Amino acid sequence: MASIKDVAAAAGVSVATVSRVLNDHPSVSDDARTRVQAAVETLGYRPNAVARSLRTHETRTLGLVISDVVNPYFAHLARSVEEEARELGYSVIIGNADERPDLQDHHVRTLLDRRIDGLLVSPTDGGSPLMLNAATNGTPMVFVDRWIAGVDVPVVRADGRAAVHDLVAHLHALGHRRLAIIAGPAATTTGSERVESFRAAMSEYGLPLPDAYIGQGDFQAESGRRATERFLDLAEPPEVVFAADNLMALGALDAIRARGLRIPDDIALAAFDDIPWFVHTDPAITVISQPTAELGRAAVRALVDRVEGRAAASVTLPARLVVRRSCGETGEPGEPSAVRSPAARPSPPQRSMS
Ligand code: HPA
């Protein structure tokens, strides 16, 4: 493989000049720059990133540890993280924790061993000693989407509370009164925030939220299916199921269809997180949509600020309610809903006995 000396010899310049061209230094003549670029091209020269890291003590690499790469929300987030990092001159190594604290630790340890310049984490839990240590021992770190309470690390996230409130107001205006939630794991901040804000909004609207209307899920489709089956088996099933993430909503959809029930006539469905295929289901699903790409980009900017020695603050972006047709809306999709009178509600569907 060609070395920097070979490039210098081929271009008829010094090694220092080649280095200046490679680093985009302005004090190089146009002629020398052109000859160096031609020699780099002809010889297929690639700078040695390892040697550079040893010299500069930086790897121009960020770590991203996400909770579940199969969840379309996190896949979308990872894409925007990689894009923004690339634009700022960094590569990204992704570790998928698969919602497992042990795997999360494995990735954090491996990334630290590789001397990444900074770490973006969407934690699966309240944080192991390894993670908490990394957060406080000077590794530049930023939490994205989820966070660990009490740890002094900037958090980039969306405000789910306001959007959950808007959803409950929307459902109330449509005449729905019996609302159930499939919650995410309480050990995650997104899991607990969504159920707490749902509870607060229900109470504000004077709507009861019995324990039987709170299904415990794990952000995976199967848990959404099981929780929905339990709701449908109740003597008085809910009128609406709100799934606290997109995968649990898919599970809920399966359970509702498996009983031969129709959405929204027999039961309504709403979800946290928009995914492209929620507009292609019949009916299209009413969701709370997060500015996922903006979150990923803002998280990288905050992390690079920390890596490069600048201050970085937490960022909270708004999530918004996107009204479609899965809750009995009659207005134009995307517009505030037309209010359906409770009297127009169809009689409760036939339920199977468990
Ligand atoms: N889990 C699952 N889906 C999500 C989350 C989460 O924490 N945040 C946004 N979508």
Helix content: 40-55%
CATH domain topology of the largest domain: Rossmann fold
Order of helices and strands: HHHHEHEHEHEEHEHEHEHEEHEE
Small ligands present: hypoxanthine
Cross-sheet strand order for the largest sheet: 2-1-3-4-5-11
User: How many distinct helices?
Assistant: 12
Distance between the termini: 69 Å
Oligomer category: single chain
How much is the radius of gyration in Å?
A: 26 Å
- Please give the domain count: 3
Give the CATH level 1 class of the largest domain. Answer: Alpha Beta
Taken as a percent bin, the fraction of beta residues is 5-15%
Written overview of the protein:
The chain is built from 12 helices and 12 strands. The protein is α/β, with parallel strands linked by helices and 354 residues long. It has 3 domains: 4-47, 434 Repressor (Amino-terminal Domain) (Orthogonal Bundle); 59-153 and 293-317, Rossmann fold (3-Layer(aba) Sandwich), CATH 3.40.50; 159-290 and 323-344, Rossmann fold. The strands form 2 sheets. The chain has a 6-stranded parallel beta sheet, with helices on both faces. The protein has a 6-stranded mixed beta sheet with strand order 7-6-8-9-10-12, with helices on both faces. Helix 1 (4-11) crosses helix 2, helix 5 (72-87) crosses helix 12 and helix 10 packs across helix 11. It binds hypoxanthine.
